[in-house]
Amino acid sequence: MGTSITFKRPDGKDAAGYLANASRGNAPGVVVIQEWWGLQDQIKGMCDRFALAGFDALAPDLYKGTVVPYHDTDAAGKEMNSLDFMDATTQTVRGAVQYLSRNGAKVGLTGFCLGGAVTIIGATKIPELAAGVVFYGIPPEQAAKPADVKIPLQAHFANTDDWCTPQVVDAFENGMKAAGKSLELFRYDAEHAFVNEQRQSVHDRQAAELAWGRATEFFRKHLG
């Protein structure tokens, strides 16, 4: 449904990504950020799904062509740990946001796992954003403080998650509340990465569909 494109980062360098356009011409935009596996077909499928829901959706390729097989957590960890999160967010992701907003459209940001953390960093660093939806990812506080979040956020977390643990989620929620920030937070009796239908060991269809409905409703409210 979508297509591979290149777009410009604010620093003028080229970045690549996968773009799926809505059928209407003046659609709002959603930038979709990958898990630690890279720009997997499942993330491209999320873009297609957003396009069917009425959004232009662009997933920037933060790993520059590297896609890690789902079973290889060591390789995924290596890729994630070698990623410059600040450069990825303030240049590649911001470039994707600017690409979708070029006709005056409002743009939201969403991401999963690694992409959830990038979404929160983006909420503090990317001025063109109108809203964000986080899926089971939170960056360290030195990367993005709740007090610095500039847009309404919705967030989805799993109660059985040994990376983005309930304790980490509680701390983030409390920090957002203390800073008086707009946050809708949902918890699911599911495992980390429960939205990823390509990973049957963790996918929870009921939780995934509930989260999808909430996310698209939130974006319609804030993006039009």
Automatic annotation (TrEMBL):
This is Carboxymethylenebutenolidase. It comes from the Bacteria. InterPro entries: AB_hydrolase_fold, Dienelactn_hydro, Dienelactone_hydrolase-like. Residues 17-222 form the Dienelactone hydrolase domain. Gene3D superfamilies: alpha/beta hydrolase. Signal peptide: none annotated. GO terms for molecular function: hydrolase activity. It comes from Bradyrhizobium valentinum. The lineage of its organism: Bacteria, Pseudomonadati, Pseudomonadota, Alphaproteobacteria, Hyphomicrobiales. PANTHER family: ALPHA_BETA-HYDROLASES SUPERFAMILY PROTEIN, CARBOXYMETHYLENEBUTENOLIDASE-RELATED.
